[in-house]
Structures are given as C-alpha cells and as structure tokens.
Amino acid sequence: EGEEGGAVCSLIELFHSTTSVLLRHEVAYALGQMQAASAIEFLNELLCDSQEDPVVRHEAAEALGAIGTSACEPLLRAHVADCHSEVAETCELALARLEHHAALANAGAKGPCACEKLPQRIVALEAAAEATSPGTTLSLAEQLALLDESADSTAPTACELPTESPDVASRAAGIRMDTLAGFDQEVAAYASVDPAPAASGSLPELRTMVLDRSLPMFDRYGAMFALRDKAARGEEREDAVLALCKALDDHDSTDSSLFKHEVAFVLGQLEDAASVPALCRAVRNEREHGMVRHEAAEALGAIGCETAMQLLSEYATHTEAILRDSCVVALHMYDREAFLAAGVVV
C-alpha cells in the first residue's frame, strides 16, 4: 500500500507538471490500470473539471470504472448526461461494468454456498467431474443445455458435497458465473483492466455485434475484446483482425468516437500488420475525432512496419496536439526498441 501511495503521488505530480493532453490522459489511464482507490478523489476532480480536455476527463471516468468501488458509482452517474459524448458514453460504459460485476457478485452471494442461485445439476456434475478428473469443467454448451432442463430435485447441492472436499464444493458453488451471464471466462490474453469483459460467441456473431450501433456500448465492447482475445489465441486471427478493422473503418458520423478509439487501441495490442491500412486511414481522416487518430497512431507505432513509420513521421508535425504528440512518442519508442534489440542500452 505504501508503494502504491507513492506511485499515485508521483503520477499526480507528473500530471500537474505538464500541459500535454496526451500525457495527462495517460496519467489517468495508469491510475485506472493500477486500480488505485487512493486516486478516486483526484480522478473525480478531473471528471468534474469542465475546463479540462474531454479526452482527459474521459480517461478519468474510465479509470473510476476500472477501480470499481462503490464510491465510484455516484461520481460516474453524475456525468452520464455530459455535453461531451466521449465523457458521457464512458460514464455509461463504466456504470455498466460496475452493474455487471455487482450482478455476478449477487448471483453467487445468496445462501452460504449460493445453491439458491445455481442450477443444482450443474453443481453436482461439476463436482463429480472434478472428483474423477481434476480441472475438468462443463463446456458452455453443456451448461446451457442443463439450464434448459428442469432442475433435478434429487441431485446433491454444493451444501451436500462431501465435507472432505471443500475445494470442490467452493468451486462448484461459484462455477463460471461470468460465462453463464453471456461473457467469456477465458483468461484474457492481455493484462489490461478492460472496460468490459469479453463476450462469448462465434466469430460471425461477434463481428455482427461489434458493427451493430443499436447495441448497448457495453455489449459492443464485449464483442470487441472477444475478437481481440480470439486473435491473440490464434483462433481465426485474420478474420478477427479484419472484423476489428471494419469497425474502425466505419465512416458513419453517427458511430461512437469512444468505441472507435478503443478498436484502435485493441489493434495496437494485437500488433498485426493486416490492420495497418485501416489504422493509416484513421490517422489521415481529418474528420475523425482526435482521440481515434491518436490511438491509431500509437497502434501503428506498436506495429512498427515501414509504412507505419513513414506515416508517423508525416504527422509528427500535425497541428492537432494529441495526434502530433502520439506520433512523436511512437517514433521515439520505435527507435528505443531498435536500439534495445541491437543490444544498446538507452
């Protein structure tokens, strides 16, 4: 806790030492990734400051959602009607994340072992599978099939599992509630604290969801992160990357800049050369929101191919500060990685 407090103080000092929107929003992002509850007051001050750049305020709201304590809920709710769409949408998304996690917690909380909240047959069969083959779980299809059937009143509940196997009982009592709620419980491919859990579904289903502007933002984000994780695991990687590129390439002015900037961020995590054309188009689009263009520039820096470097050099003197600074940082990071790869300490 002492180390976290020192880091929070250092980041806040860094924030106040610069006027760069890029760096200030990165400070807010870092505080959210740390899930530092001690930063809540500072982040709320940023969110409430109407003179602060909306990109920084959006990042403060996302950080509050990542921290996710009960104290964050009213702070976020106060700004769901903010005049800046990127701030309002971030608050809505963060609140949906808090509600999702609260629902999962409540689903496993009723009764000493959550028996009243779980299908008895799944509990019993999971326990039996564990006893015969440790680590075995029912597939999602098997779970859903059981949910469609009437509960077997004779099946043992988690309360009735053998007392000599407390680990089996506790695991059965809390089985994969996230998956049952429609979200994928695969271990995330990245360590980032994401604004929404990855959704479950086939690639065609996820592609449809990510492009459907009528869906709640939380659902579209879930589809986006699911496509990212599929690609990272090598599951239909090319198709998953191209689905994300199509979402970024959507030039309909009604689509969310918040959503598109997160798509660019995800493409940067994947570092797939197939996304370079779409990312370049986003950077070049003068009608695109600065937060989208900056995130696309950073993604190009992560990929680091010749085409990406040429475009970053071209836009490193752009008039829009957050885009310009992102290009400069990406170029410096690429040079640093090249030096390190050559064994030169920088």
Question: Can you offer a commentary on this structure?
Answer:
With 346 residues, the protein is mostly helical. The chain is built from 18 helices and no strands. The radius of gyration is 22 Å and the shape is globular. The two termini are 31 Å apart. InterPro entries: ARM-like, ARM-type_fold, PBS_lyase_HEAT. One of its GO terms (molecular function) is oxidoreductase activity. It comes from Coccolithus braarudii. This is Deoxyhypusine monooxygenase.
Low-pLDDT segments, ≥5 res: 110-128, 134-186
User: What is the 3D form?
Assistant: globular
Strand content: under 5%
CATH class term of the largest domain: Mainly Alpha
CATH architecture of the largest domain: Alpha Horseshoe
Relative helix content: 55-70%
The class by helix and strand makeup works out as: mainly alpha
Organism: Coccolithus braarudii
InterPro entries: ARM-like, ARM-type_fold, PBS_lyase_HEAT
GO molecular function: oxidoreductase activity
Protein name: Deoxyhypusine monooxygenase
